[in-house]
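Input/output pair, single chain:
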Amino acid sequence: MANPVVIDYYSDVLCVWAWIAQRRNEELNDKLLGKIEWRYHYLDIFGDACNKIPNQWQDKSGFTGFSNHIQKAAIPYPDAPVNTELWKSVRPHSSANPHLVLKAVALTLGANVSIDLALLFRQAFFIDGKDISHLNVLLGIIEKAGYKADGVKQSIDDGRAMAALMADYQQAKLLSLKGSPTYIIDNGRQVLYGNVGYRVLLANIEERLKTPVNEASWC
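Output:
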């Protein structure tokens, strides 16, 4: 069996487009079972959400305008419901805390658990309308999922999780990534970002699966 295609997946947990992409990622897993290796990373889109949104949307009704925007963005995607209170009464200050906790989870509980919890964090925000910028909310989700949070807290306390998160943020800047989500396929052979359709993603991945790594370039 050929080696799996590596996808370095960069996203911000508060990004509606990454939420919409969730179902596509699940379909890719179902279609290409065992042929994809996901590496989850995070980038800073809503690191300063409490200032970014009112500043960028000051001529479009601020938080209310942004809330209406994400509601409309999600309408064509029934698998990505959006709570009507997001960015109205529910206004996370930053996506940095959920990112930090997810890096801590990866370090202490494993990468696969971190991927699973990233989905639970997104569901808590987009469906349940919880402010996931609060550490106690995040740790509560971890414990409700059946995991102990002691090791997670320790890796935050000793700086390991922060170092891992800063590595993600710095790499995203180094790569000049343009948005969330971004798919970097096979060590940069393809880079796709934003609201990328399922068929486009599938075609790019399948092309990498059938193309030998040592095939000569036509360029």
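The first strand starts at residue 5 and ends at 11. Strands lie at 5-11, 36-42, 182-185, 190-193.
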